Amino acid sequence: MRRRRQENRWIHRWSRWLVAGIAAVGTLGTGYLTITKLMGGGACPTEGCERVLSSPWGTVFGLPLTLFGCLAYGTMLVMALAPLLINADQNKPLRQKLETWTWPLMFMLAAAMMVFSAYLMTVLAFELKAFCPYCVGSALFALSMFLIILLGNRWEDLGQLAFMGFIVGVLTLTSTLAIYAPIGAGDSPSSTVAGQVGPPITTASGPAEIALAKHLKDSGAVMYAAWWCPHCHDQKQLFGAEATEALNLVECAEDGQNSQVDLCRSKPEITGFPTWEINGEFYSGTQSLARLAELSGYSGPKDFRR
After folding, report:
1. Can you give the residue range of the structural domain that contains 271?
2. Is 94 helix (H, G, I), strand (E, B) or coil?
3. Which of 22, 46, 48, 277 is the most exposed place for a label (fewest CB within 10 A)?
4. Do the beta carbons of residue 216 and residue 244 sit within 8 Å?
5. Under a CB-based contact definition with an 8 Å cutoff, are residues 306 and 203 in contact?
6. Residue ending a domain, choose from 120, 150, 185
7. What is the model's pTM?
8. Omega into 200 within 30° of 0, i.e. cis?
């Protein structure tokens, strides 16, 4: 019995420091990924990691998912350290008040992060079918923080704690499914062709966009893309739904609809998506419609909407 009490005292004494350490590493990792993503650089050590972070699941409200992860880890770090930075001898009531308030907040945040990470692991395994070391590491961090917080505090009412965790889990899962619902909506239920497709094109095309798309196709221009690539979706959004249908698109993802992965691999000039092949030259990245018109020698109307 005495040994068990000593173990409890140890985990209670060091739990906040352990959580703070994990949160600090998570903040640095996600912060690094966010900065490199916003600057347009490649931060991932593996192709699978780059594929995950460049997929529709890697962006929330137009911002990198890693940014929200960085904010979550940073918030956890602040809450874990806040009471520890108060001198107990000089201001014991304030330190106790911070501990009382931050423990349930830390528990709810850790529960939300764990549920969200579990959802992303499911997407990783069954949708993207890729290995992302950053994603797996973040999921393990979230699980570790949740367990440390659960075991590292003397909770007075475990029933209330379980109910609180259940509510947070349900809200997190519901919100996550709602945020990523447009991705699933991109899969047409009426389509008989197997394979993944990206999110739906929500912009309308004008006469200029349609004319440019037809000119690009007639001149032999090709857009090499992948269904999971957000930049490819951005390019299609510039054209609009009607004009996109007129483009000569080549799907380069193995699990994409009408995939032509062998054709894509036969062209070493394709180093990222989208890549345009126009008059024998290759252009990587999202291109403005004016730029595509110039490169292809288009002479039609140029009053593009975007």
Report:
1. 207-296
2. helix
3. 46
4. no
5. yes
6. 185
7. 0.65
8. no
